[in-house]
Amino acid sequence: MAEVVASSLLRLVFDKLGNKILKEFGMSRGVDKELKKLESTLSTIHDVLEDAEARQVKEKALRGWLRKLKDVAYDVDDVLDEVAAKAMKRRSENKSHITEKVRQLSSIPDSFVFPSKIAHKIKKIRERLEEIAGERTKFHLQERVAENIRAETTVREETGSLIDESEVYGRQEDKEKIIDFLINMSDERDLGVTAIVGLGGLGKTTVAQLVYNDPRVCEHFGKMIWVYVSDDFDIKRLTRSIIETMSGSECSLTGMDLMQHKLKELIGDKRFLLVLDDVWNENYEKWDRLRTVLIGSARGSKVIVTTRSARVASIMGTVAPHFLSDLSEEDCWLLFEKRAFGLGGCEKTPYLVAIGKEIVKKCGGVPLAAKALGSLMRFRRGESQWLAIKESEIWNLPDDENEILPALMLSYNHLPSHLKQCFAYCSIFPKGEEIRSEQLVQLWIAEGFVQSSNGGTYLEDVGLLYVDELLSRSLFQRGQEDLDGVVRQVKMHDLVHDLARSIAGDECSIADAGDETVTSQNCRYASLICRGPITTILEPLKDAQRLRTLYFIASRGRTEEEDKGDDVLQAIFSKMKLLRALHLSKCPMKALPVSVAKLKHLRYLSLSYTDIETLPPCIGALQNLQIFDLSCCRQLRAMPETIGDLQNLLCLNLSDCKNIFSLPNSIGYARNLQNLDLSFSQIQTLPESLSFLSNLQSLSLRYCYFLNRLPENMKNVRSLKHLDIYQCCELACMPPGMGQLTHLRTLPMFVLGGKNSCRLSELGRLNLLGELDIRGLENVGEATEARKANLKEKQGLQSLKLSWDLNAYVQPGQPWEEIENEGTSMKELVAQDWDADADLVEEVLGNLQPHKNLKVLKITEYAGKTLPWWLKESSLPYLAELSLTSCVRCVHLSGLEQLHTLRVLKLIKLPAVKCLPAVGQLPYLEVLVMEVLAVRCLGSEFYGGEGAFPALEEFKLSCMLDLEDWPTVGGGEFLPHLSKLCIVECPKLRALPSAFPSVRELNMNIDDELLLSSFESGAFPNLKILNIGNCDFDNDNDDNEDDDHDNGDNIYPSFIPKVLAVRMSSLEHWFVRAKPKPIASGSSTMVHLQCVSMNVVFAGETLIMPLL
Prior knowledge:
This protein has 1108 residues and is α/β, with parallel strands linked by helices. Among the domains are: 3-146; 155-323, 3-Layer(aba) Sandwich (Rossmann fold); 329-405, no CATH class; 416-653, Leucine-rich repeat, LRR (right-handed beta-alpha superhelix); 769-913, no CATH class. Helix content is 31%, strand content 14%. Strand 28, helix 31 and strand 29 (1025-1028) form a beta-alpha-beta unit. Helix 1 packs antiparallel against helix 3 (32-46), helix 3 (32-46) runs parallel beside helix 7 and helix 16 (329-341) runs parallel beside helix 18. The longest helix is centred in the N-terminal third of the chain and has 35 residues, at 60-94.
């Protein structure tokens, strides 16, 4: 990075000098004396670095000194890497599992020559370092405390409460939301606090000023107080400021106790509003001391906090913070226009306006940037001057004319040094790009930016904390999130990206392969955008021999010239031997050149989405490699045996490698491996040596459909936290001893097998989180096994699926699936002589009571007759989704009506159920699915009284073969929020309720006349989308082409004109599954109908044929 993060680099070097392996190797090879001298020289500089970094902003000579220091520090890091690699190689050879082939390929000097050469190199570097260290005296550098330095470098002009509202655009909605909290929101607390959070320059203070000066607010509060806080959250100073504002006179009190009593006296029983502007304090104790003085005032007193930190908002707020969004481009233009073309400004010509609107796009919705750029252009009269600003980057503007980056720099100055390095590194990504959090952390690790304070914390976990920290400080924005709200991708605001580029200087570069040389000799980190032939990438990199990161950005397209990709890589590997991170995703290549072995410093290698077919054995020579990403390499056929020689490998990603069927046994020798991803691969078995990986933390086998077993000694992988075997359908059982994996937190599936497999009781020792699907419960021979699983204590489980296999209970040779396919009626299935001990099955389920925190419960192929006793609200107060599927002997569903928190209820293939509980009284139920039930009527017992289904949005009735009546319930609005209705295969249904006022989408396969009568009666006044029919095209023949029906399965086009004649003016889309046949022309009252189309299956594909 730039000189401001030299201390981070030196800290990294110090850590390496203390490495145990390095010291042992140094002593045995005679280079330990030079290493000790080097460490001593570095320590003399380290103590004054904080002072140097603070002062270099204003002192150019000091900036040059730091530059020279960083260059030497990089050289020290490189030589220590070389020594460490040699040490690791010697250790590997001593353990004698490295292959002879790799030894032959190795180009490391002979053991007798190496020590003297490396000692000479270290000495040369140390002498350069001593020379630089000697220059520090002329700068009079001192040891300083980081907090004091930060306070000096984060000075911002003090704010006040006054504002000129004519200068504000686009913040009315934000203002009203804050005022609503202040005036209308009741709060039982003595003091309500809301925070306005956002990027520097986004307008947090402006919104607070708008609110503060609003007449409604002034009238509501008896006292109004504005305090500018900034970096110094000194309780004494803040208390004095509040006293002086409330009293209107200077406070002469000096003791804290006297001031606190004075403030209590002034507050009295008055309702007040306090604005704390620009808060950076993240110490809860400090805030609590101030809050203690403020509480006890009149109910309704409020505090507004403005801050850039979401963590500050979390510490101080009593309600969710208000995150400011970017201004619209139109509002930014208004701000820019007023400054640039206002009185005394430029003449407002159409050409300058056009250029100005392009300049405004640089603002990224930040009002400070719009005003600053408007002011900058105010006195630039010529079109050429405007064009120059339009073509320039914000970070390249002259310092004396750039008000934008200094405002953002405050956020940067508050970062600890290790985060400064990580932040500036992100400038290698193009503007607007969403960056995968996991990949970003891996790149940071490869560069040594992520350091664990203790050996027990995994580096990837530490790195993700870094990401969270940058998010909370508004330097990152949230990108893609998973269903649990975990941020999987982050992005940088354009202006924050400009800040990072400004900080990184010429050490970071985004190069375009079509340009000439754009990377200087000082460039250490670069991304390369390749839009044309692969051969074009060499030119911009010809001077970048000191690169540590090369991030290749390309599309998957290929040209004939791109077949030279292997030659290009050969050139890169030969020139850039200092690379730590090499990202070649989507690079056109079929093989990895053997010259890759020259990259002795390489820690991160991504070949994802390439056509690589094999890996050279010399891959094992990359002793420093930590992250190896081969995801989506679908032509890759096997991993080399030398993969086990990668002693520092932390992460191996083989996800979606469709031609990988097995792993070599040598994988067990990669003892430091923490993360192995084989998801979506064709892997069938895992080598037993996998159980040697004592540091393995995460093993992903998600969607490995062909995996049939796990290693027998899986219990030895004691560090394992995540074992993802979701949808590993061929997995017959879990290996014994799984209960010994006490660190395990993620286990989405647990398969019970025969006698020699893992028992259900072994779940008892596991503290699992998230989801759990227990399969094979028919193999549980004793109900006590279920109780020992101890599900009741697993408070982290959110979703639980309990599955039996009905094949275990039917007569021999008569599988459950075959019974269904033979068309056996539901009544016959229920009457069959199932070979199941109902009492045992019911007792097992009764003993599998989950923790009360459970939100999703699914029970499948349960052979009991009654539901478990614990399926009630008192036991599951947060249950949101319940699914009962293929519980063929279950007769009673009583108790479901008590689950008042349910939002989704699915009752599928319950042929013995004839009576439904009053689920209509579930207040939050949004989705209801009922399939294959023996229910005859959806009547009063189903609704449970008036006001039924107040929240229901989706309702599906399918294969309800006995359903005859569905009356409209009296009293209250009928299904007031139902928007989607599906009725399929209900042949006996005689009538539908009289009105569905809110249904917008209808999917039906029922009697034509019943459907028509509903349309004619106006039952669907707001219908927008209509899907009709479930056609069997195989029965199509000429003999019945004039029939309107075919066993109730087909709805012929002759039915379409009848529907067209019905008055349904709201309908917009109509989809028909029917036999292709011309439609008779005729008038239609469907005035908003946009399309009628027919799905036709032809040659195995579904075609959409427009009918109107």
